[in-house]
Amino acid sequence: MEEVGKKTLLEIKEVTKWFGGVNALQGLNLQVYQDEIVGLIGPNGAGKTTLFNVISGSFRQNLGEISFGGQNIDKLKAFERCRLGIARTFQTVRPFLDFSVEENLIIGAWYGRGKERLSGRDLQETTEKILETLGLQAKRHDLAKNLTLVERKFVEVARALATKPRLLLLDEVLSGLNPAELEKAVQLIKNLSVSFGVTIIWIEHIMKALLAVCDRFVVLNYGIKLTEGKPSEVVADERVIEAYLGRTGKKFAERMGQLNLGRKE
Amino acid sequence: MKRSRMWKPQYLALIILLLAVLAFLPSFFSAYIVSFLIITLMFIIMSCSWNIFCGFTGYISLGHGMFFGAGAYAFTLALVKGGLPYYYSIALAAIVAGILAFLIGLFLLTIRIRAAYFAMITLGFNEIFQAICANSAALGESTGFTIPPVPHLHVPYYILLGVAVVAVGGTYMLDRSHAGLALKAISQDEEVADTMGINVARLKIIFFVLSGILPGIVGGIMAWFWSYLDPYQGFNLVFSFQVVIIAILGGMGTVFGPVIASVFMTLLIEILSTNLPHFYNIIFGVLVTIVIIISPRGMNALIGKIFHR
Amino acid sequence: MNFELFLQLVVFGLVEGGLYALVASGLSLTYGVMKILNIAHGEFLMVGAYVMFWLFTLAGVSPVASLVVAAPLMFMLGLLIFKLVIVPLERVGASHLVERSSLIAFFGILIVFQNAALVSWSADYRVVSYLQNPISFLFFNISINRLVVLGISVAIIFALDFFLRRTFSGKAIRAITQDREAGMLMTINADRLSFVCFGLGTCLAGIGGSLAGMLHVITPTMGFPFLIKAFVVMIIGGLGNMRGCLYAGFLLGVLEFIGAYFVGEGYRSAIDYFILVAFLLLVSHGYLGKFGRSL
Q: Which residue does chain C place closest to B129, by CA atoms?
């Protein structure tokens, strides 16, 4: 699915990762292009977070190669990958709890940028910009542990942004938000790719949000890439629906007339 | 950079005044007081050093006395067997302790290790070194070494005072620096710190080494001060534990906490040790347990609550 | 060294090793279920030894019989400590923070116990002479008390092993050891299990102490070397694996005796740690794969 003129930022070749007896990822092939927003979907346990762990360097894959910006990063440790431009958030929301919002950002800005580390005026400006984008200025001195869940999620995103990433991996940032917060967050993420020039891979379960923002969907199931493509097409794909609902679920949904499956005219 | 809550000019002036007093003290006070201060300075340096690594990263080292002992033995061997003048011997003590810390750090801090295991294994190293010294003729066996006494009480006093200033000053600078922030990030969530660009392994090793060098120097000086060294004195387990207790009660990751706690501890030991030798330890044990239950995040969180961070 | 000497060392090593395994089983159970290392474990052993000593000296109760008193006493002491210290700490949430602060809390308890013993009972060596008459066994003599200790240690460990593998509660314990969350989802009350297992752990330490007192000198600082040995055995034997503890205990005991023969008695603890360090080195570099799970 290569579009002419688009540069490949991240390339995943035949990546396989197993834990003991479980194959979390099997022969995964994936390309992510510059400036796109990719929605990574699939039922629970499909290997999405494992993929993030392998990309960010928390785990090493057992087989296969990963390239970022044209160079192979398999030998790079997690902190080196961050400095290269890969940043992530965590499904379990892990900002540095005993730090203030500002301190969380400073860690990212000072350590996550490699040679381009910020200090003084630049640090101030960048921090300001990030806090403003995420609406956290008022809370900048508050300790992360005293913030609400939503605010903590935003702190994680802010911290990731502070590392000046080229690729941002968002892991289920929308879970637990109410409709109003959801709206705000979706707008935010849409803006991120523009205001910060990041390519985004986004794991999420809330389809509405993904459909509004993503350029492309990639579907994982049992560690294999099921399919990928335009969001509207992928969502209607029978195999995807079956993966989420199971065979009986799909039949049930059909019968209820909720889904108009692939009856292409 | 940030968090400059207490360092106003008044406090700075106070500290300089205190240092001036300490500098002139030996000329006016008795040998007993000077000796007492030497012991206090020893605890200050030891607990600040422990704090630099363990207090900031949260890795509890229960065998930190091994650096004290290593330095003591290096100093003693250089002075007594090697005939080197004392300043070279001290330098050697620092180097040996530093190398030891580096090797142990390389072994323990570059793998995923649980806090409990780190604690037990650092303890183990202390025991191993004690056993090696106690069973090796070249290292004096159980009888140890007698060391020519210090030329004058002032010498160890001023050296320790200088090292203490370095230790405390260093902790202060660390607390305000990015490295200090990074160490605290490591203590909160090491895996995340790694993904945020912090070279966790390197930082841990650097500060573990730094936290081992100063105890090495202190070990050498104290052996000289006591005119004597044997494995049980050099690698004393109770001493290692006291250092940990002081640092914890004083506040892990704080700057002046260990200093204040050291003074209290030494005073308390001095007052109680004649009457009730082991009683003070019971009090400390109880205090440590209570403190950590009340404020599991450490004393600095407690203090933070008190001062409305 | 000739074969007879070797055999004698092996047998003595097995006796001590069985004891180490017993003490380790308590630590292993507790650490496996709670993932918190009780570094004061050795102190419970020490208290158990003193209980046995005082019952023997003051009331003439035989060490084996005194187990009837020591065991429940140490069990309840453990429960008390759990309620006072662990429960408030678990409040914190973040598991590594709980691990770290409980480490410190147990450290405090270690200091308190040891020094309280020093204050109350002084550092004098206490000895219990019981069943010390030797009987001849193969080519050498071995005192009966050693055989008694070995017998009781092995019996208890096999009983524990049976309990863990055949009873429902035992299986629940093993489940929690492997995956606490999954176990809780299966409606296992992990907190109550932690509570009971902790008491069980200190109880086993106390029993170990009473037995140790039959073979060793009783002092307030005797607990510490046993903590070290229990730790090593626990790591090598595997968390919550009773038979593993037994074999690892035997291994450690034998290696200790043989090693001490060559390098000297003073190196005992050093040998323990050396074995641990070697083991860890091998595991962290990928060898002995399945043992690495407990790390």
A: C270
Residue that is written with structure tokens 């037994």 in the block: C246
pLDDT at B306: 57
Count of other CB atoms within 10 angstroms of residue C109: 22
Quote the number of domains for chain C: 1
Beta-strand pair A37-41/A199-203: parallel
| Termini Cα distance of chain B | 16
User: What stretches of B153-244 adopt beta strand conformation (E)?
Assistant: 228-229
Cβ(A70)–Cβ(A108) under 8 Å? no
Tell me whether residue A255 is in a domain.
no
Domain count, chain A: 1
CATH number for A32: 3.40.50.300
Q: Is the pTM of this model over 0.80?
A: yes
Sequence-separated (6 or more) residues with CB below 8 Å from residue A192: A133, A157, A161, A168, A198, A200
Compare CB distances from B185 to A107, A113, A143 and report the shortest one's residue.
A107
Structural Rg of chain A based on CA atoms:
19
Provide the edge-to-edge strand list for the sheet that holds A199-203: A86-88, A167-171, A199-203, A37-41, A216-221, A224-229
pLDDT score for B143: 84
Name the residue in chain B with its Cα closest to that of A88.
Answer: B195
To test the contact with chain B by mutation, choose from A54, A56, A79, A89 the residue with the greatest count of B C-beta atoms within 10 A, namely A79
Burial C33-69 (b: 16+ CB within 10 A, else e): bbbbbbbbbbbbbbbbbbbbbebbeeeebebbebbeb
Q: Which domain holds residue A195?
A: 8-232
Closest CA to B298 of B54, B74, B120, B100: B54
Select from C103, C224, C274 the Cβ nearest to the Cβ of B60: C103
* Beta-carbon pairs below 8 A across chains B and C: 131
Residues in chain B, pLDDT under 50:
1-5, 308-309
- Chains touching chain B at 3 or more Cβ pairs under 8 angstroms? A, C
Bridge-based pairing state of the strands A71-72 and A224-229: unpaired
Q: Can you give the pLDDT at residue B3?
A: 47
* Segments forming the whole domain that contains residue C207: 3-294
Rounded Cα distance between A74 and C134, Å, is 65
The subunits that touch chain C, with at least 3 C-beta pairs less than 8 Å apart, are: B
More confident position, A225 or A256: A225
Residue A253 lies in a domain: no
Mean pLDDT of the residues in chain C:
86
Q: Would an 8 Å CB–CB cutoff place C277 in contact with chain B? A: yes
Domain boundaries, given as residue ranges, for chain B: 32-236
The interface residues of chain B toward chain A in range 170-229, judged by CB-CB distance below 8 A, are 178, 181-182, 184-185, 188-189, 191-200
Place of tokens 């609902």: A245
What pLDDT, on the 0 to 100 scale, is given for residue A264?
A: 41
